[in-house]
Amino acid sequence: MGDGAAYRIVRYRPDDPVPRGTGRLLLPDGGALALDGADLPPGTAALLPPAHPARPAGRVLALAIPVRELPPAAHGAVVLVDVSSGLGRIVADMARAVAAEAGALGVAEFDAACDRIAELLRMAVAGRAQRPPAPGNLAEVETVVRRYVRAHATDPGLTGRVMAQELGWSLRQIQLALQRAGTTPRALIREERLRLVRDRLRDPADRAVSITDLAHAAGFSSAGALSTAFRRRFGVSPRELRRGQTGTG
């Protein structure tokens, strides 16, 4: 690996400095991993937040991951990751393969491989943290999905399939939860985007922002797509609402 790369991957030694602005994925490298004097279950890795003082024991492979690439759950707490099966095992296998080939990789190649590892790690952690206790707990699924849509509605690439991937559920499970509430992933995303636009149209601070810019900022593909959906939902166009010609409910 080249100098100056954002990621680092090393065979861990107790005196290794912790790179600033990074978390660390600690993988057992033959045998079990011990952290803060306690043995972790076999097949378990530990994801440490930035500046965490823990010093692991045993043979450990350490991948330093920039803060911006860490799962949200790992920003302030240690996250244990099952690397014995499923996506966690794929993450561990890829990290070990990159460590073995690091000397043959250029900086761009090394970073690209680590980006993919970090992406899969985020998925693995999100699935473990967000999955409801029972598959039939549709009310909890609906609550988490609505919260997720509120936080990500402005992303033009947001779809039901993307939500399912990020939250660790099946698309069918999300569809069933929203069907129970009388909506669909697509309709929920559109409704949240329309509410965002409506609120900005009513805000004097945004009066100088064009309808086109409001549309793109809210995740719509064009001003036309926004206007069609907005009139269907609220009975007026965005421009009419801004001019104050007609109120909306």
From TrEMBL:
Residues 143-244 form the HTH araC/xylS-type domain. Keywords: DNA-binding, Transcription, Transcription regulation. SUPFAM superfamilies: Homeodomain-like. This is Helix-turn-helix domain-containing protein. The lineage of its organism: Bacteria, Bacillati, Actinomycetota, Actinomycetes, Streptosporangiales.
